[in-house]
């Protein structure tokens, strides 16, 4: 069975821009408000809600004060900007440039036509967010029409200027235009303001639907664009089915189907369509061809982590076990670009499971970030007959892999190798357990000298964007306080806490600080505490890169071995653009889109545990 995604489906630029802006803000702030759902897709909305995005209506918006509010791609009327200024609201303006340009045109046309007592007509859906923003440019006086029957509201003796909502169909707009040409007795100016990227999807979708035996259309139930496009799809191919998520798939639809197409609305995320494909493949394993992958490449990228060698060993031996050739790619994506390959046999990975670092070596590649660099990498794969890739690394590694597989349809599976344990879709990443044990060993030694001299130590551990290492190692070492990026700790609160614990008990103190903590790192915090409390004998220790090194723990070796074998099996199972992980002790698969877009959260139960145990 051949399965493919409609290359023209998925988010339009405006939606992508809005979501990217929301995610950027939510990396720094836990809460961001948005007027209405950012996109008409419940699953994507739920994902963003989990990150802290809260949808509000205009009444709620008018009662906010001093908050950050995102204006989505649909645009907002002038009244919303006035309210924001009055209420001291910071606007994150993600209005689509096409919509903003249309608003300006309508505003200008309204000013001019007022002189002749003319009318602005907008062909669009009444009450739609974009249309409300457009009507706002005319002080609420524009006439909104959905069909020719609504044109009875127009006075044909007066001048008329016609515009269209950007996402309406050309056919409907043409029908309105022709009707006005016949009926208008005064001047008529027609402005075709339909976004061609959206409108062109109709003929392209017809063509796509006709190419497949079965078409699955993924869309939110609220999406008017989705309903319109599905109707187009259904007319072109009767074996078209509408779903909102992969759970709604019926495997009876695919009986005797040799070709399946997956498409979606402009509000459908690509990761959701990818998950739909994976669901179809998993349920139809017996129909999938496993013979096309003859040679696999494996590479490590980004920061090294203890256990990467164990993963390489597992990939090599699992590939050989399945009679698939395997080559090691040296220096990560740089090696992929320059063809730095090494054929791997079983003996090449002997005696490496206990070693830290990576025998393939790692590097960050700026060239792979470019179209030209990825083109070179693809050419090297073709020249060396490499059919698929397994990449071991973190979110940067997976971001590169995702783009690469989208551009060249290369099967790529990821193995999470990062000590930070911050990847969504797996309980543990390779290297995390070893890094924690390294921190524990170091802190235990520091505790000895702290006790001997009655000192307060601020110990900085890795975790630029996540506090998983700090939190677990802090609990395990009995730290008096733990500072992590996910929880804002004010210096004054820390001072009170230390006065209650450290000062009253007159004993040693340990404060674990993640390097990405918002208070500024161990040295900055220690300096501030020292100013307020010169009586403290304060020392700072930055553990640094020692956390990345050393022999991997038994847990990391087993985890890496399990994931390495699972990655090979995933490729042979015809999966691509997914990360293998371990959830509740079982192997899981999550799309690159999902693991990159979602933020893994620290467990509140661990935060509470530390509060209880540190009294």
Write up this protein.
The chain has 22 helices and 23 strands. With 615 residues, the chain is α/β, with parallel strands linked by helices. The chain has five domains: 11-95, 3-Layer(aba) Sandwich (Rossmann fold), CATH 3.40.50.11270; 98-194, 4-hydroxy-3-methylbut-2-enyl diphosphate reductase, catalytic domain (Cobalt-precorrin-4 Transmethylase, domain 1, 3-Layer(aba) Sandwich); 199-288, Cobalt-precorrin-4 Transmethylase, domain 1 (3-Layer(aba) Sandwich), CATH 3.40.1010.20; 295-420 and 557-595, Rossmann fold; 432-548, Rossmann fold. ADP binds at residues 313-317, 447, 478-480, 506-508. Residues 295-571 form the Phosphofructokinase domain. This is Multifunctional fusion protein.
List the helices and strands and how they pair.
Blueprint: E1 2-5, H1 13-28, E2 32-35, H2 42-51, E3 53-56, H3 58-63, E4 68-71, H4 78-86, E5 90-93, H5 97-113, E6 119-123, H6 129-136, E7 143-145, E8 160-164, H7 170-183, E9 188-190, H8 196-199, H9 201-210, E10 214-218, H10 224-236, E11 240-243, E12 259-264, H11 270-283, E13 295-300, H12 308-321, E14 325-329, H13 332-338, E15 341-343, H14 371-383, E16 388-393, H15 395-408, E17 412-416, H16 432-453, E18 456-461, H17 468-477, E19 481-483, H18 491-505, E20 509-514, H19 521-532, E21 538-542, H20 554-572, E22 578-583, E23 586-591, H21 592-597, H22 604-613
Parallel strand pairs: 1-12, 2-3, 2-4, 4-5, 6-7, 6-8, 8-9, 10-11, 10-12, 13-14, 13-16, 16-17, 17-22, 18-20, 18-21, 19-20
Antiparallel strand pairs: 14-15, 22-23
Pfam families: LYTB (PF02401), PFK (PF00365)
Binding site for (2E)-4-hydroxy-3-methylbut-2-enyl diphosphate: 40, 74, 128, 166, 223-225, 267
Protein name: Multifunctional fusion protein
């Amino acid at each position: 069975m051949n399965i493919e995604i409609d290359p023209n489906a998925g988010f339009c630029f405006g939606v992508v821009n809005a979501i990217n802006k929301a995610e950027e803000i939510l990396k720094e702030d836990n809460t961001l408000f948005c007027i209405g759902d950012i996109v008409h897709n419940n699953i994507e909305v739920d994902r963003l809600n989990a990150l802290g995005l809260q949808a509000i209506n205009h009444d709620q918006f008018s009662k906010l004060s001093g908050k950050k509010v995102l204006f989505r791609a649909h645009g907002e009327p002038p009244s919303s900007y006035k309210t924001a200024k009055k209420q001291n609201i910071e606007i994150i303006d993600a209005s689509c440039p096409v919509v903003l340009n249309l608003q300006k045109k309508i505003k200008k046309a309204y000013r001019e036509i007022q002189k002749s007592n003319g009318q602005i007509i907008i062909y669009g859906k009444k009450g739609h967010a974009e249309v409300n923003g457009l009507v706002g440019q005319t002080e609420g006086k524009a006439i909104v029409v959905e069909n020719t029957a609504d044109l009875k509201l127009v006075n044909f003796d007066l001048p008329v200027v016609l515009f269209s909502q950007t996402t309406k169909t050309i056919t409907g707009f043409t029908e309105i235009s022709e009707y006005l040409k016949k009926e208008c007795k005064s001047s008529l100016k027609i402005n075709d303001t339909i976004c061609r990227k959206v409108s062109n999807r109709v003929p392209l979708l017809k063509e796509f639907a006709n190419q497949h035996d079965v078409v699955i259309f993924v869309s939110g139930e609220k999406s008017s664009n989705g309903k319109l496009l599905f109707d187009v799809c259904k007319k072109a191919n009767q074996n078209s089915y509408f779903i909102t998520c992969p759970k709604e798939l019926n495997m009876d639809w695919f009986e005797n189907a040799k070709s399946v197409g997956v498409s979606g609305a402009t509000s459908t995320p690509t990761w959701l369509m990818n998950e739909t494909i994976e669901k179809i493949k998993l349920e139809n394993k017996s129909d999938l061809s496993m013979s096309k992958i003859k040679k696999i490449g494996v590479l490590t990228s980004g920061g090294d982590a203890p256990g990467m060698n164990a993963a390489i060993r597992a990939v090599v031996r699992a590939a050989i076990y399945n009679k698939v050739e395997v080559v090691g790619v040296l220096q990560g994506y740089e090696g992929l670009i320059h063809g730095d390959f090494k054929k791997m046999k079983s003996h090449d990975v002997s005696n490496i499971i206990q070693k830290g670092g990576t025998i393939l070596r790692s590097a960050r590649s700026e060239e792979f970030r470019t179209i030209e660099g990825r083109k070179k990498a693809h050419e090297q794969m073709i020249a060396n007959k490499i059919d698929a890739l397994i990449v071991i690394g973190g979110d940067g590694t997976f971001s590169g892999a995702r783009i690469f597989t989208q551009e060249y349809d290369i099967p790529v599976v990821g193995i999470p190798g990062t000590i930070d344990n911050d990847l969504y879709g797996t309980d543990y990443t390779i290297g995390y357990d070893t890094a924690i044990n390294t921190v524990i060993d170091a802190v235990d030694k520091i505790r000895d000298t702290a006790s001997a001299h009655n000192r307060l130590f601020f110990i900085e551990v890795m975790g630029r964007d996540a506090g998983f290492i700090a939190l677990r190692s802090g609990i395990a070492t009995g730290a008096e306080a733990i500072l992590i990026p996910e929880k804002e700790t004010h210096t004054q609160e820390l001072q009170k806490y230390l006065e209650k614990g450290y000062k009253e008990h007159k004993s040693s103190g340990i404060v674990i600080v993640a390097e990405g903590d918002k208070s500024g790192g161990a040295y900055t915090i220690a300096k501030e505490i020292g100013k307020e409390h010169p009586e403290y004998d304060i020392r700072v220790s930055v553990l640094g890169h020692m956390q990345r090194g050393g022999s991997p723990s038994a847990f990391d070796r087993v985890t890496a071995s399990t994931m390495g074998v699972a990655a090979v099996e995933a490729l042979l199972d015809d999966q691509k653009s997914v990360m293998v992980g371990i959830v509740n002790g079982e192997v899981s698969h999550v799309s690159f889109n999902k693991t990159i877009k979602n933020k893994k959260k620290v467990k509140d139960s661990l935060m509470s545990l530390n509060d209880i145990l540190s009294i």
